[in-house]
Design brief:
With 204 residues, the chain is an alpha/beta fold. It has 3 domains: 1-30, no CATH class; 38-76, no CATH class; 93-198, Nucleotidyltransferase, domain 5 (2-Layer Sandwich). It has 7 helices and 5 strands, in the order H-H-H-H-E-E-E-H-E-H-H-E. The chain has helices spanning 12-18, 24-27, 33-49, 59-67, 132-149, 162-167, 179-189; strands at 93-101, 106-113, 119-128, 154-159, 193-198. A 5-stranded mixed beta sheet has the order 3-2-1-4-5. The radius of gyration is 33 Å and the shape is elongated. The N and C termini lie far apart (76 Å).
């Protein structure tokens, strides 16, 4: 194949640049790539700043918008709640428990504090394979056992699991393999002042 200026096809690109009789392609003005990028960024920034569309919660989208200097309109929270850890009343001991788990292991932990929010005791245990409810319930029972061991007869147990709170009023929620230990903990609670409550994870 020959070009309009009798150059070979392989030389056609160079021909557009050096031919004494340039064709229509050679008459087009070459644009510097830096200018092209600046133009794109400025146009996108203008478009982004003139829209009222809400951004997504994706960090990937957030980084892109920042790179292009676009104004970000975050999603509006449906409801905002202030959560603050509350200390127990005088002579009471408060224990906050929580769990963590993966597909292969689960564990629980907790911390005891007094009315001045001073640290008293903490505990944790790896349970191996198990679900979140099993770990949360195991942590609550361990807290009760430790409260008896240290003679804390006024115990406030706080957890971010609503199922654990419901288990104290509905024993049928307790898994079969924890029933015996659960009955022992209920027996301990019959001789102490006990309160259990739910708390949001951010406060726990």
């Amino acid at each position: 194949m020959q070009s309009c200026c009798h150059c070979s096809f392989d030389q056609s690109f160079q021909c557009c640049l050096v031919c004494k009789k340039p064709n229509k392609i050679s008459k087009k003005k070459m644009i510097d790539w830096k200018s092209s990028i600046s133009t794109i960024i400025s146009n996108l920034a203008i478009s982004g700043n003139n829209t009222n569309a809400l951004a997504t919660s994706s960090m990937y989208d957030f980084v892109i918008m920042k790179k292009f200097n676009g104004k970000i309109h975050p999603l509006k929270a449906p409801q905002i709640l202030e959560v603050i850890w509350q200390p127990p009343v005088f002579h009471w001991t408060k224990c906050n428990t929580d769990e963590t788990g993966t597909s292969t292991s689960s564990s629980y932990g907790g911390i005891f504090r007094n009315k001045d929010a001073n640290f008293l005791l903490c505990f944790s245990e790896n349970l191996g394979p198990g679900n979140a409810f099993f770990a949360e319930l195991s942590g609550a029972m361990r807290a009760i056992e430790l409260a008896k061991q240290y003679n804390w007869f006024d115990l406030w147990l706080e957890t971010d699991s609503e199922l654990v709170v419901k288990a104290f009023s509905n024993h049928k929620l307790v898994p079969c393999n924890l029933r015996n230990k659960w009955r022992n903990c209920i027996l301990i609670l019959s001789s102490v002042n006990f309160v259990v409550s739910h708390v949001y994870r951010e406060e726990n």
